Amino acid sequence: MIIQLCGLSGSGKTTIAYKTKELLDNIGIISEVIDGDEYRKELCADLGFSRSDRNQNIRRLAFVAGKLSQYGILSIICAINPYDDVRMEVSLKYKHVKTVFIDCDMATLISRDTKGLYKRARLLEGDPDKINNLTGINDPFERPLSADLVIYTDLESADDSAKKLYDFVLQAITG
C-alpha cells in the first residue's frame, strides 16, 4: 500500500507520518516514510519548483514507494504534492494508493512556520529574501478532488491526527 500525503508546508505531514509509522511498527506492520524534504537533498536535488519539476519529484517518490510496496512495505509519501493531476497519475499507476489530505488553516501554518517560508513569501516584491514560489501563497495548491481521507491538523493534536491515519490504514488493510 502507498499513502500519498499532500498538504501545505507546516501542515504536519512529516510529523503525522512518523507518528503513524511508530504505531504501525508496534503491531508489526513494516512501513517506510518517504520524506519529500529528505529526498530533495539527494534523489531529487536536480529538480526546482516549477510545475513540471514538482510533478517529476512526486513521480520519483512514488517510484520508490512502488518498489517498496512490491516487497510488502507500506510507504507513506510526505510531500506538498500540490497538483491533482499527478496525484491521480500516481493512484492509477501503482496498486493500493490512498490519498490523504493534511488540511490546516493559513493562520496555523504561519504560526508553525519554523523555516520562515511564509514570512519570506509575503515580503515585498524586490526584497532579496522574498520567496516567489511558496505553495499556497504565490504558487498554486489544488485541494484534492477525491481524497480518501482528510485530516484537519489545525483542529486536533498531532497524536490524534496520527491515530486517525493509523486507523484508516488498518481499515484499508483489513477491508
Explain what you see.
With 175 residues, this protein is α/β, with parallel strands linked by helices. Helices cover 44% and strands 15% of the residues. The protein is built from seven helices and five strands; from the N terminus they run βαβααβαβααβα. It has helices at 13-26, 36-41, 51-69, 84-93, 106-111, 117-121, 158-174; strands at 2-6, 31-35, 74-78, 97-103, 149-152. It has a five-stranded parallel beta sheet, sandwiched between helices. Helix 1 (13-26) crosses helix 7 (158-174). It starts with a strand and ends with a helix. The mean pLDDT is 94.
Helix content percent band: 40-55%
Q: What structural class is derived from the secondary structure elements?
A: alpha/beta
**What would the principal axes of the Cα set say about the shape?**
globular
Mean pLDDT score, rounded? 94
Number of strands: 5
